[in-house]
Structures are given as structure tokens and as C-alpha cells.
Design goal:
InterPro entries: 23S_rRNA-intervening_sequence, 23S_rRNA_IVS_sf. This is Four helix bundle protein. 83% of the residues lie in helices and 0% in strands. By secondary structure, it is an all-alpha fold. It has a single domain (2-76), classed as 23S rRNA-intervening sequence (de novo design (two linked rop proteins), Up-down Bundle), CATH 1.20.1440.60. It is built from 3 helices and no strands. Helix 1 packs antiparallel against helix 2 and helix 2 (21-44) packs antiparallel against helix 3 (52-76).
């Protein structure tokens, strides 16, 4: 989960510094793919009672990021 979560941030930085529109779109697609993977791993995790609420917050945040990246892609076409 650390890899996919870290990849989102790294690829977003790359998208921000993209040399072309095609490169930008590719990086945003990778961001969306990696956040989907992060959400998948979060859903599979079984935290103790203390962290269950935090897990749900993180899943919600991942879902929102997926929507944001999807919106960016739609507007970039």
C-alpha cells in the first residue's frame, strides 16, 4: 500500500511538470490507477477497533481522489 500510495503523489508531481498534454494525461491516468490500488488494499485491511474509523475515512478520501483524477482526465480531452 505504501508503494501505490506514494506513487500517486510522485506521479501527480510528474503530471504538474509534464512536457506535453499527452504526458500529463498519462501521469494522471497512472495517479487514478494507483489510487484505485491503494483503495483496494485499504478495503482488504482489517484494522483493530481503534483504527476502523480511520480506515473508512481513508477509503472515502481515496474514492474522492479517484473522482478528482477522473474529472481532470475528462476536462483534459
Amino acid at each position: 500500500m505504501v508503494r501505490s500510495g506514494g506513487s500517486v503523489g510522485a506521479n501527480y508531481i510528474e503530471a504538474d511538470e509534464a512536457l506535453s498534454k499527452k504526458d500529463f494525461i498519462l501521469r494522471i491516468k497512472i495517479c487514478r490507477k494507483e489510487i484505485k490500488e491503494s483503495r483496494f488494499w485499504l478495503e482488504l485491511s482489517e484494522p483493530n477497533e481503534e483504527f476502523k474509523a480511520e480506515k473508512e475515512e481513508l477509503i472515502n478520501e481515496a474514492t474522492q481522489l479517484m473522482k478528482i483524477f477522473g474529472s481532470i482526465l475528462e476536462k483534459s480531452k
